[in-house]
Write a structure and sequence with these properties.
The chain is an alpha/beta fold. The protein is built from 19 helices and 14 strands. The chain has 4 domains: 3-134, 3-Layer(aba) Sandwich (Rossmann fold); 146-230 and 238-324, P-loop containing nucleotide triphosphate hydrolases (Rossmann fold, 3-Layer(aba) Sandwich); 326-409, Helicase, Ruva Protein, domain 3, CATH 1.10.8.60; 412-478, no CATH class. Strand 3, helix 3 and strand 4 form a beta-alpha-beta unit. The two termini are 52 Å apart.
Length: 478
């Protein structure tokens, strides 16, 4: 399904020949903000409607003239298996309920239905539909091996299979309204993933980002929910909060691990009830914004320490995207470096500097606790230090890698002691240059996933030079 076909909000169709029932039920659902409500008094209008309108859930009466719910139910289940049908009838008989469930009804409610139970049942049906469609989208993506919205990820430079799997998962959950938790170390690109998810979702509203790290509990409520004029001293004008600005769009809360306890409670209520109160107002407003959250903190550890609410944590866990750090996808270092070199040259109004031999092998040796953000800073600094027409200097990169390295200093080892790493078990002699070359070439090919161009960058040589070495090695083995 293309993004243009994605429904902006779920559509719930109520079918009942009693207009008073339709009025009461639609009033309850609209007040709960579960989606757009369509009411039908004529049951024969339902199937034509569903042929032209994407429907998320149907609430169906059984006893109706012309075309009864008993006749409609099996037709709906057969033609629209992804659309849950809730039967709501005054017939309080076990045999009727059992028959409806056998025919494929999602749930069976007996009139009069308690309001909270009715809303909870509809919400559960919408969640079930979203999860089913998510699984279907993920299956299609995995089986086809391609992205349906590749352009949405164009801003993310990667050659990593791990990142491609992240993209496929993003596509599979983009159409749901459930919250998403994006985790990963500093600098891995959490905001870029949030932007891509918003683009794939097809929502007509804006993506509204807010950094929660700089908001205390009072400022959090005012920033998100807004306030009425006179709500507190200094509130001379009414203010629209960011959640209202994200209507029909996406609210992206970055660094939610820094939220205070009171703010966590407010966020949990917003997620559960889809309602909020501007400061100074006692009238609830309904939110239809999709909420994405991101953090580099270990929320599970914070939850165990009592610093993050467990109910909020599990509410956010409906969909979780974990972005792997750069050290776990070394095949991305060379493409990112190329991208940052071009970006830095354009930003500094310079010609693209020549890349000296050994650049990519040097970059591949880094640990990158700051991930892509750290790599970008290193490249920009090196480009800024380069002569106008000279090659990219390596000394600033070496210094940056040395300063950011997390490795410990190892004392010199006497020659009589067995070596480590590549030299383990060969304390009596060092490997020859030929052996070292073969080992380096083999390791570069492994890290690049067999991509000879990327492997050549890792080794600091041209692709032609690598091809010559590989051909020579094959000739020697033959």
């Amino acid at each position: 399904m293309t993004s243009s076909a994605i429904s902006e909000e779920p559509v719930i169709v109520l079918v009942d020949d009693d207009p008073s029932i339709l009025l009461a039920a639609s009033f309850v659902l609209r007040g709960a903000g579960v989606g757009r409500i369509i009411t039908l008094e004529e049951s024969r209008d339902l199937l034509p409607l569903m042929a032209t309108q994407e429907v998320s859930t149907v609430v169906l009466d059984l006893v109706m003239p012309h075309l009864s719910g008993d006749e409609l139910l099996p037709r709906l289940v057969q033609r629209y298996p992804e659309t849950p049908v809730i039967v709501m009838t005054a017939t309080d008989e076990v045999s009727t309920a059992v028959g409806c469930m056998k025919d494929g009804a999602f749930d069976f409610l007996v009139k009069p239905v308690e309001e909270n139970r009715f809303v909870a049942c509809v919400r559960k049906a919408l969640e079930w539909r979203g999860l089913r469609r998510q699984v279907g989208a993920l299956k299609r993506s995995l089986l086809s091996g391609r992205l349906e919205h590749a352009d949405a990820f164009a801003a993310i430079v990667t050659a990593s299979p791990k990142m491609r799997a992240v993209f496929q998962y993003v596509e599979s959950i983009a159409q749901t309204a459930e919250p998403v938790l994006i985790t990963g170390e500093t600098g891995v690109g959490k905001e870029l993933i949030a932007e891509a998810l918003h683009r794939v979702s097809g929502r007509s509203g804006a993506l509204v980002p807010v950094n929660a790290a700089g908001l205390d509990d009072a400022l959090f409520a005012d920033t998100l929910f807004g306030h009425k004029k006179g709500a507190y001293s200094g509130a001379e004008e009414s203010r629209t909060g960011l959640i209202a600005q994200a209507a029909r769009g996406t609210l992206f809360l970055d660094e939610i691990g820094d939220l205070g306890h009171s703010s966590q409670v407010k966020l949990l209520r917003l997620l559960q009830e889809r309602k909020y109160y501007p400061l100074g107002s006692d009238v609830a407003r309904v939110s239809d914004a999709r909420i994405l959250c991101a953090t580099h903190r270990d929320l599970e550890a914070m939850m165990a320490e009592g610093r993050f609410r467990s109910d909020l944590y599990f509410r956010l866990q409906v969909h979780r995207i974990e972005i792997p750090p750069l050290r776990e996808r070394p095949e991305d270092i060379a493409p990112l470096a190329h991208h940052f070199l071009a970006e830095a040259a354009e930003s500094l109004n310079r010609e693209l500097p020549d890349t000296p031999p050994g650049l990519f092998s040097l970059l591949a040796s880094g640990h990158y606790p700051g991930n892509a953000r750290q790599l970008r800073a290193m490249i920009f600094d090196a480009v800024a230090r380069a002569d106008r027409h000279g090659p990219l200097p390596l000394d600033p990169i070496r210094k940056a890698l040395r300063n950011n390295s997390e490795s410990t200093v190892i004392a010199p080892v006497p020659l009589a002691v067995e070596g480590s790493g590549l030299f383990r078990g060969v304390a009596d002699r060092l490997p020859t240059l030929k052996e070292m070359e073969n080992e380096l070439v083999a390791e570069a090919l492994v890290r690049s996933g067999g991509n000879q161009g990327v492997a050549a960058h890792f080794l600091g040589i041209s692709r032609q030079a690598l091809n010559q070495r590989l051909r020579k090695k094959r000739d020697e083995e033959d």
